[in-house]
Here is the input.
Amino acid sequence: MAFTPPIPCQTGVRLADHVTLGVGGPARWFADAVPADDAARAVAAADAAGVPVLVLGGGSNLLIADAGFDGLVLRLADGGVAEQVEGADVIVTVPGGADWDAFVGWTVAAGFAGLECLSGIPGRVGAAPIQNIGAYGQEVAEAIEAVEIYDRDARERRWLPAAACGFGYRTSRFKREGRAVVLQVAFRLRPGGAPTLRYAELASRVAGQAPDLAATRAAVIAIRRGKSMVLDATDENRRSAGSFFLNPVVPAAALAEVERRLAARGQAPEAMPRWPAEGGVKLSAAWLIEQSGLARGAGEGPVGLSTRHTLALVNRGGATAADVLAFAAFVQDKVRTSFGISLEREPVAAGF
Ligand SMILES: Cc1cc2nc3c(=O)[nH]c(=O)nc-3n(C[C@H](O)[C@H](O)[C@H](O)COP(=O)(O)OP(=O)(O)OC[C@H]3O[C@@H](n4cnc5c(N)ncnc54)[C@H](O)[C@@H]3O)c2cc1C
Here is the structure.
């Protein structure tokens, strides 16, 4: 490829060292701590030359190919936050390269409600809108006011209001289209606001305490730690991408089929967890995996299910991306054969 990146880049950087699953080959060009303007310039140059681009955050939702990424990988710079009071709310604008959980910790310490349930999620701020991160009763879309992107088609920087971001369950127009670099995110938060306690396990953990943001954040992190869902270098399940499969949203006919199969196995269909969702009924991917015969810790090779969370695929050490894909296909096959449901992968694949 005859391409000279217009910003300083390293070559041959091993991407396995920059993603939480710990798999993936080298990047052809790798630029770190890139300021927004330089990122826009570099992506424009790569697009003009037909060079593939991967914007990397914390690498906690990425599956990189063993062959690596034959293009430009760039990671945005961190920077300060800007605050602006608007009526009873505060609008906080944060660079895409900022660490997500450090930012959430800052909002909680400042007494700004709106993100407390999203404590402990790995990654960077710029990735949060990509799949509309969610956990324990909150989704980031609820708190996003606007997103500043570099639009790779229009070749310009611009702000999009939340309503134009196409947010859905673990998705957005950014994830669907892959044509935007998220440079900054503006959040609308509630100074002195009460924590969101919609999630039963979380509400019961903080019951009896004054329902403040700090207690809620601490409870979320404690619950997550129990499921190996925080990054912890001492945890045997540390090499994962979090939940590897989305909870399937199925139409009535597919739900009836799952219920029929459960009944045929002598199981009570009502025992299956489900939630109303746009476009159908949302089922629990973890429950389906367990009922298809795979318990936590299942898997003989270098990749298996987390010992603490059925939905997380774990690189137990020395795995390749091919191993991860093979084990994922094995799990998907078990669920499809048992219930006729196809589980979809959550992490983004790059370099394949
Ligand atoms: C232990 C663990 C627990 C997790 N728990 C949760 C959870 O509770 N809820 C949840 O929703 N997710 C969870 N995740 C998934 C992951 O942490 C989130 O999706 C997170 O937002 C990814 O951030 P990142 O910076 O690591 O993104 P990366 O993994 O680096 O990137 C993910 C995708 O976003 C793109 N991207 C990243 N930054 C930008 C940017 N600035 N502009 C454009 N595109 C960009 C990448 O190109 C890629 O396509 C978990 C992951 C792990 C490992």
Summary: The mean pLDDT is 97.
